Amino acid sequence: MNPMAAAVLILSLFAAPVRAQERAALLDAPLVTLSAFDRYGLMVDLDHDGFQDSVSWWWTGPSATSVRLRAWRNDGTGKLVYVWSSEVSVRSSSVSRPLLLRVFPCNLDSDGSTDFYLVFTG
């Protein structure tokens, strides 16, 4: 037997078993429950703890003249916990066609906390 092959065979017996190379899930899906209105607008680390938090949004009122933003913190176990909510007016009730809306994270005031801006058309 080739001495190099014998050395590799002997060393492979002492090697630690390799774990499966699968991507870890951001959230534990069975624990994620939000209200009927909430949907994920974006995933971002709001409190800089290394866990992905979420911001949800939905149109409010029958005329959809404002948007409700709600923040959810990942408690480290994959469970999302409600943190804050804010309502933002985005158009007048005289506009009848639907708006397209996106929510983006940013840092407007350099305080280290995540801020958000809304982009909408109408």
Q: What is Rg?
A: 23 Å
The residue fraction in helices comes out at: under 10%
C-alpha termini separation: 76 Å
**What oligomeric state do the depicted chains represent?**
single chain
Helix/strand/pairing class, anyone? mainly beta
Number of structural units classed as domains: 1
Provide the succession of SSEs: HEEEEEE
How much beta, percentage-wise? 35-45%
Provide the low-confidence segments as ranges: none
Main sheet properties: 4 strands, antiparallel
Number of helical segments with 4 or more residues: 1
- The chain-level mean pLDDT equals 75
Which term fits the overall shape? Answer: elongated
Describe the secondary-structure layout.
Blueprint: H1 3-14, E1 40-44, E2 53-60, E3 66-74, E4 80-89, E5 100-106, E6 115-121
Antiparallel strand pairs: 1-2, 2-3, 3-4, 5-6
Question: What can you see in these coordinates?
Answer:
The protein has one domain (24-121). It is 10% helix and 38% strand. It has one helix and six strands, in the order H-E-E-E-E-E-E. It has one helix at residues 3-14; strands at 40-44, 53-60, 66-74, 80-89, 100-106, 115-121. The strands form two sheets. It has a four-stranded antiparallel beta sheet, with no helix packed on it. Strands 5-6 form a two-stranded antiparallel sheet. A hairpin with a 5-residue loop joins strand 2 and strand 3. The model has no long low-confidence stretch (mean pLDDT 75).
